[in-house]
Automatic annotation (TrEMBL):
Gene3D superfamilies per the UniProt record, alphabetical: NAD(P)-binding Rossmann-like Domain
Source organism of the structure: Alteromonas hispanica
Lineage top rank: taxon: Bacteria
The protein's enzyme class: lyase
Domain Polysaccharide biosynthesis protein CapD-like: start-end pairs: 7-279
Protein name: UDP-N-acetylglucosamine 4,6-dehydratase (Inverting)
CDD domains per UniProt: UDP_invert_4-6DH_SDR_e
Family stated for the protein in its record: Belongs to the polysaccharide synthase family.
Database matches in InterPro entries: NAD(P)-bd_dom_sf, Polysac_CapD-like, Polysaccharide_Synthase-Rel, PseB
Assigned EC number: 4.2.1.115
Keywords: Lyase
Length: 333
C-alpha cells in the first residue's frame, strides 16, 4: 500500500515516528517519507540513524498551517502523531496544549483537504475517553475534529480516521523508563501511586502495525481501538524489581485509577471485530455510507452489548508478572 507513495508524519521524530519509520522502510519502498517536527537536533539524529534517500526532514510546527500546507504537497498519506502529551505539563500550560493538540489538529485537517491527501490517521489515547485531564480533553477534541472532517469533504478525499490506544511500553517519559532509571540509581523503593491502579499495555511495534493495518481498513470516521492486555502497576513493579519494596505515594493530579478506551455511553456506536473495536461516528455523514459494520477489507463487526465498556480493570485479558517481564523484553526489540 505504501510502495511508491509519499507519506508525511507529524511528530515523526518521537517514539512512534522512529518505530513507524523503521517498519515502513523495512517493509515498503515509499517514494518519500516526510518527517515534520520542530527540533532540528532530533531530526539530525534521526537522519543519522536511518540515512534513507527517500526521507525528507521538514522543520515546522503543527500550529503553522502555511508550513504544513507546503510540507503536504504531493503527499498521499498523513499520520498525525505530533502532540503535547505529558499530563502535568498540559495542566500547568493549558493554552499551549490547546494550541498544539486542538489548533494543530485543525491545521492538519485543513492542509490535508487543501492538498487532496488520500487518507489521514490521527493518533489518539485512552486518556481521551471520558477525559479528566486537559491532555485527554484536547485529544478528545482532536478526535472529534478528525471524525467530523469527513463531512467537510463529502464523497471526496481525504478520508480521516483515528487510532486510539493505551500506554506504550517504554515510550519517552512513561513509567517503564522511570522505574528503570530509579532501579539503576539504586532506589530503596518503587513508588506506585495507588495499590489498585491498572493500565492498558501495548508495544510500539503493535501500535505501528495497528496504524498500518487501519490505513487498509478505514472507510473514514472510525475510532479504531485495538484489543490489548491490561496490567496492574504493582505487578509491573514486581516484574521490574522483584526484590525492591513498593511504596504507595498517592494518586497524581489528572491521573485515573483505571483507563478507558471505549466509553459505555458510546456502546450504541461501538462494533466488535476479531482483534479490535470500532467506535463509529455519532453524527450522520452526508453523501457517504454510515454503515461501519464492515470495513474496506470486508472484515465484519458486530454490535456490542448496550452496557459494554472497554476499561483496563475489567479487561478479560490481564498479564501476569512473568508475562509482563516477557512483554517488556519484547517491547525493547
Ligand atoms: N506514548 C504513549 O504512551 C502514547 C499512548 C497513546 C497515544 N499516544 C499518542 O501517540 C502520538 C505519538 O506519541 P509519541 O510517544 O511518539 O510522542 P513523543 O515521543 O513525545 O513525540 C512527539 C513528537 O511530536 C513532535 N511535536 C511536539 N509538538 C509539536 C508541534 N507543536 N509541532 C510539530 N511537532 C511537534 C515532537 O518533536 P519536536 O518536539 O521536535 O517538535 C516529537 O516528534 C501522540 O499523539 C500521543 O498522544 C502516545
Amino acid at each position: 500500500m505504501f510502495n511508491d507513495k509519499s507519506v508525511l508524519i507529524t511528530g515523526g521524530t518521537g517514539s512512534f515516528g522512529h518505530k513507524y519509520t523503521e517498519t515502513l522502510l523495512s517493509r515498503y519502498k515509499p517514494k518519500r517519507l516526510i518527517i515534520y517536527s520542530r527540533d532540528e537536533l532530533k531530526q539530525f539524529e534521526m537522519q543519522q540513524r536511518f540515512n534513507a534517500p527517500c526521507m525528507r526532514f521538514f522543520i515546522g510546527d503543527v500550529r503553522d498551517k502555511e508550513r504544513l500546507t507546503r510540507a503536504m504537497q504531493d503527499v498521499d498519506f498523513v499520520i498525525h502523531a505530533a502532540a503535547m502529551k505529558q499530563v502535568p505539563a498540559a495542566e500547568y500550560n493549558p493554552t499551549e496544549c490547546i494550541k498544539t493538540n486542538i489548533d494543530g489538529a485543525e491545521n492538519v485537517i485543513n492542509s490535508a483537504i487543501d492538498n487532496g491527501i488520500e487518507k489521514v490517521i490521527a493518533l489518539s489515547t485512552d486518556k481521551a475517553a471520558n477525559p479528566i485531564n486537559l491532555y485527554g480533553a484536547t485529544k478528545l477534541a482532536s478526535d472529534k475534529l478528525f471524525v467530523a472532517a469527513n463531512n467537510m469533504v463529502g464523497a471526496n478525499k481525504p478520508r480521516f480516521s483515528v487510532v486510539r490506544y493505551g500506554n506504550v511500553v517504554g515510550s519517552r517519559g512513561s513509567v517503564v523508563p522511570y522505574f528503570r532509571s530509579l532501579i539503576e540509581n539504586g532506589t530503596d523503593h518503587i513508588p506506585v501511586t495507588h495499590q489498585d491502579m491498572t493500565r492498558f499495555w501495548i508495544t510500539l511495534q503493535q501500535g505501528v502495525d495497528f496504524v498500518l493495518k487501519n490505513f487498509e481498513r478505514m472507510l473514514g470516521g472510525e475510532i479504531f481501538v485495538p484489543k490489548i492486555p491490561s496490567i496492574r502497576i504493582t505487578d509491573l513493579a514486581k516484574a521490574m524489581a522483584p526484590d525492591i519494596p513498593i511504596k504507595i505515594v498517592g494518586i497524581r493530579p489528572g491521573e485515573k485509577l483505571h483507563e478507558m478506551m471505549c466509553p459505555g455511553d458510546m456502546a450504541f456506536h461501538t462494533f466488535e471485530f476479531k482483534d479490535h473495536f470500532v467506535i463509529a461516528p455519532a453524527i450522520k455523514f452526508f453523501q457517504r455510507s454510515n454503515d461501519f459494520t464492515s470495513n474496506a477489507l470486508n472484515e465484519k463487526g458486530k454490535s456490542v452489548d448496550e452496557i459494554f465498556e472497554y476499561v483496563s480493570n475489567s479487561n478479560p485479558h490481564f498479564l501476569s508478572v512473568d508475562e509482563i517481564s516477557a512483554f517488556n523484553e519484547e517491547a525493547r526489540k
